[in-house]
Amino acid sequence: MGYRIRGKKPLLIATLTAIAFVSFVVLPAIALVPLAISVRRERLSRPPQTSVPVLVGMTYQTAQIKVRDANLKIRVLANRHDLQLEPGIIIAQTPQGGERVDCGTVIGVTLSADDRRR
Questions:
Q1: Domain map of the chain by residue range?
Q2: pLDDT tens across 56-80, in order?
Q3: HEC sequence for 1-66
Q4: Would you say the C-alpha torsion 40, 70, 80, 83 has a positive or negative sign?
Q5: Which DSSP category does 89 fall into?
Q6: How far, CA to CA in Å, does 21 sit from each of 11, 15, 90, 91?
């Protein structure tokens, strides 16, 4: 009866197993709970994000609708007069289409305009 000498070894093994379980499983789990709560709060505090639609090649009016549907805003940054395009077509945008941005971000566009030299 190798483990039952003097009747105290099973109790010793059970006690050591319980201490090891508490030390290596329970205490680390308890220590990680505040970290998990902190990460969750930080994620919830971030503003919602959306994907920027591709606006290049659209008219300004069509782009306004797409931008509004994506919970974004639009602003004309420049007009280019030296291009052979129909006036009112978006020729550049920032941020680029496909980027992830916070809702409410302003999308800057450059529009084609009439050539002033004519």
A1: 2-45, 49-112
A2: 999 999 999 999 999 999 999 999 9
A3: CHHHHHHCHHHHHHHHHHHHHHHHHHHHHHHHHHHHHHHHHHHHHCCCEEECCCCCCCEHHHHHHH
A4: positive
A5: B
A6: 15, 10, 65, 65
pLDDT surpassing 70 at residue 5? no
- Locate 111 and state its tokens: 């529009």
- Pick one of 3.40.50.720, 3.30.10.20, 3.10.310.30, 3.30.450.40 as the CATH number of 49-112: 3.30.10.20
> What mean pLDDT value characterizes the chain?
88
Which tokens belong to 76?
């004309």
Q: How many CA atoms lie within 13 A of 43 on its CB side?
A: 6
Contact predicate 104/72, CB 8 Å? yes
